[in-house]
Structure formats: C-alpha cells, structure tokens
From TrEMBL:
The keyword Methyltransferase is assigned to this record: yes
Residues in the signal sequence: none
GO molecular function terms attached to this record: methyltransferase activity
Positions of the Methyltransferase domain: 43-138
InterPro entries: Methyltransf_25, SAM-dependent_MTases_sf
Entry annotated with the keyword Methyltransferase: yes
Name of the protein described by the UniProt record: Trp-1
Native organism: Xenorhabdus szentirmaii DSM 16338
One Pfam family hit: Methyltransf_25
Highest taxon listed in the record's lineage: Bacteria
GO biological process terms on file: methylation
Residue ranges the record marks as coiled coil: none
Alphabetized UniProt keyword annotations: Methyltransferase, Transferase
C-alpha cells in the first residue's frame, strides 16, 4: 500500500515537491480535464494527500467532498488547510483497502492510489471499495502508472521523479524511486498491465473504461527547451483511467 511512513515523515516538504516538479502541472490539468464540470456533484477523494484536489473541486462547485488518505500527517495538513480556507471538506485517515462505505457519490477521484497496490488482490480490493461508494450513474477518475512505461526507454528525472530500480513483482513490476528534491525523498510504487486494470474494473462491476494520456498544452512545451518533453511523451510514466457502470 502507500508508503505512509515516507509521507508522514516529509509532511510539508511534500507540498513543496509537488509545487516544483515539472510533471505536476501536467498531472493537474489532465485530472481536472477528466473530471469536467463538477458543479453540484458529490466527490470522494481517495489517496487525497494534503487535500489539493478536494479543495479545487469544492472551489469549482462540488456540493460535497470527502478526502481519505492512509497518512496521518497528510490528513493533518489537509484539515489545517481546509480550516484556513474555511471550507467544509471532511478528511479521514483510512487504508482504502479496508474502507467501508461513506455513501453513494457522483465521482470517486483516485489520484496515485492504484500504483500503491502491492498485488492484484490489493488492486481488486481498491476497485471494489470504489464501486461500493459510487452511484450507478457515477464515474471513477483515476491517475496511475502507465502500463507501457519501461525504464530502459528513459528515466523521468527531468520531470521530477528519478527511478532507481525496476523489477518483476507478483505478475507486475515494482519500482524503487525518489523525488528529485533536496534531500531526495525515496518511495516505492507498482505497475500493473492494461489487461489487469481492465479485468479488475470489470470484476468490480464497471462496464466501460477509457485510458487518457496526459494533457500537454502548447504553453507547457514553449516554457521549456526544445525536446524537453520528448521522453515524457514517448515513454510516459503516468496515465488517466476512467471507469463507469
């Protein structure tokens, strides 16, 4: 599951990391594009971290937002930021695999959740919990590791993540990596195949799914030297995955 000890230990530093690594802007605009119009929608934000997406969605008109994360420190920061902002987002420290039902939501937002599933069994638990918390008309918006990514085709260091090791793991792959920061912050994540994701989503009751490549705007390309985004576009580490019943 998520490296809760790593995230508990870095606390506020994680916010600084997300604000400085180049890929973060691409991630945010891709996720918000996938979410679309959230006015009047109820949203369950899983692996919410310090609550960034929940606050953005509340500002964009979501009627209700609940955030869940396994890290006590991240939830502590999220609650404090919401207190300062004066919003009414609820935050809970829970391991998603063991989570019950908070009700039925229009949208479940799961950014960097599935990549911490250490096995297909863990992945299945996550998907089933999500299905149990969604309305039949609802949808899952997720952001995870691109199944086609290969370390041999290029590292992600220019974009904020340095991958140190890639190894076979339980039918998928395990990666040892670190955020490009001072000092570097180590973490571990897992990659599962496209077929494993699609089969797991179907087993949880989802009928349709869509893979979504990161959204890079012309302004993003122009901001950096020519060729900067080449590896990111040709061997991207991240992808969107949308599921509906």
């Amino acid at each position: 599951m998520k490296n809760e000890e790593s995230y508990d230990s870095i606390g506020e530093s994680y916010i600084q990391i997300t604000e400085t690594i180049p890929q973060r802007k691409i991630e945010v605009q891709t996720i918000l594009d996938m979410l679309g119009d959230v006015k009047g929608k109820s949203i369950l934000d899983l692996a919410c971290g310090f609550g960034y997406y929940g606050r953005e969605l509340r500002k964009n008109g979501a009627s209700k937002v609940i955030g869940v994360d396994i890290s006590e420190k991240m939830i502590e920061i999220a609650r404090e930021k919401s207190r300062i902002n004066g919003d009414d987002i609820e935050f809970y420290v829970i391991d998603v695999r063991n989570m019950g039902s908070f009700g039925k939501f229009d949208i479940v937002n799961a950014v960097w959740l599935f990549n911490y599933a250490t096995s297909i069994a863990n992945l299945e638990k996550m998907f089933q919990v999500i299905a149990n918390n969604l309305k039949l008309s609802g949808k899952l918006i997720s952001y995870t590791i691109e199944p086609d990514y290969q370390l041999s085709k290029g590292n992600c260091t220019p974009y904020g993540i340095n991958i140190l090791k890639e190894e076979n793991w339980n039918g998928g792959f395990r990666y040892k990596a670190e955020y490009v920061s001072t000092p570097p912050v180590p973490f571990t994540f897992y990659k599962w195949s496209r077929e494993q994701y699609e089969l797991t989503s179907k087993k949880s009751g989802f009928k349709s799914f869509e893979w979504r490549k990161p959204l890079i705007l012309n302004s993003d390309i122009e901001k950096y030297p020519e060729g900067f985004w080449d590896t990111y576009q040709n061997n991207c580490l991240q992808t969107g995955f949308i599921c509906q019943f």
